[in-house]
Amino acid sequence: MPVGCQKLRRSVATRRTMPSPGTPDTGTQSVSVPVAAIRARTKPEAVFAPQVLPLLEPSRPALLEGVVEMHNCAKEMGIPMDTMRSAVSLFKNHATALREGNLLTDGYLTKSSFVSLVKQMLNETGVRHDAVEEASVIDRFVGTFMSAEQDCKGVMNFRDFAIWYSSHCFDENFLDAKEQAMRKLSRKLGVSPTEIDNYKRHFDIVDADGSGEIDAEEFLAMLYKFTKVPKDIGLPRKYVNDMFRAADTNCDGSIDFEDFVVFSQKFLY
Ligand SMILES: [Ca+2]
Ligand SMILES: [Ca+2]
Fold it and tell me: Where is this region: Disordered (predicted)?
């Protein structure tokens, strides 16, 4: 029998032989061991449940400290874990730690490391800016850095950064190229981003071959669907051609997404 099991058995047996109140002590040598202590010895994994701390490795206390801090911040600040993980990844890339390995509890961003971090976020969008444009965007975010660092020491700790990140990660400048194009179109047409998303879902259904354009055949199928005219009765050719010309504003024989939104606002929705 393993030594640990023998000890446990002795320990439990010891509790069973302890005299109850009022019972004369028979001389049995016994030591009171709290049940919780026995459970802690027999179930060490219960101290840190894997589902709570999935990255826990007892031999790496610095990592544990960081993981606990990440979970605490997410819970206290109401930040979704996906967002928090992205914040952690960025912070670890650019922050400096007072003590090695404890970036989340002792690390900080200076203004220059914050600028590097913002540049990384801009690069990851895939959108290329010229130097003047990029400097302007960075200047704007440096302004938010000044107001985000709570203790006015000129550096941002992880908690400051987590709050900053959760409120700025959906800024248009940090969206990918497609999403930024959608936001620009939304402003150009005076349509809300939510409506633009809805139009895009309809457009993708009509664009059956996924070419990114609606051709004459796809357009005809769309008209049948919206007019609910049975195909065996058929739509008048002149009506179909007039509608297609109304939608195809640049007369290149197909309808792009912007044309589709304008046409839909006039004729479909
Ligand atoms: Ca198509
Ligand atoms: Ca066109």
Answer: 1-31
